Amino acid sequence: MDDSKTMVTGMIDDATASARPVDVLLARYAESHRDPTNELIHFVCVPVIMLSLLGMLWAGHPLVAAGVAAAALAYYWKLSRPFAAGMLVMALLMLGVLAALPPIAVLPLSIAMFVLAWAGQFIGHLIEGRKPSFFDDVRFLLIGPLFVLGFLYRRLGVVY
Predict the structure, then answer these.
(1) Which residues 6+ apart lie within 8 Å of 130 measured at CB?
(2) What is the pLDDT of residues 41-86, one digit of tens each?
(3) Which of 7, 45, 126, 136 has the most CB atoms around it within 10 Å of its CB?
């Protein structure tokens, strides 16, 4: 490797080392989410997956869904308080939707949404030509929602 490539690589490594963990995770996640069609699919499917996962847990017991949401929020709080606030709003909205649904409908609806949304995700990655990030690091299952929320925050001028 020539010296100019070594210098650039070193500069990138230094910049990454000084970045906040949330910024590093979002940048790594974004590497496999650059195609506009894949991004659009993720903007739709990631929230649907969140809702459907909470729904499947809710069908077992609502406190389990609330507990998992709280655990995820604790992780988000460590990464970024503004992200945690946004995810709290999303979690409360999703749990509210689940509470409003007829209990008998929650599980079958959640399973159907889960399967369809994951199919959409994999189609997006086929279009992108890159494997999903969580194959390399399971944390990216929690970073996907922040990727979507980050897009909304940037549009609204919210600093995270």
Answers:
(1) 31, 32
(2) 999 999 999 999 999 999 999 999 999 999 999 999 999 999 999 9
(3) 45
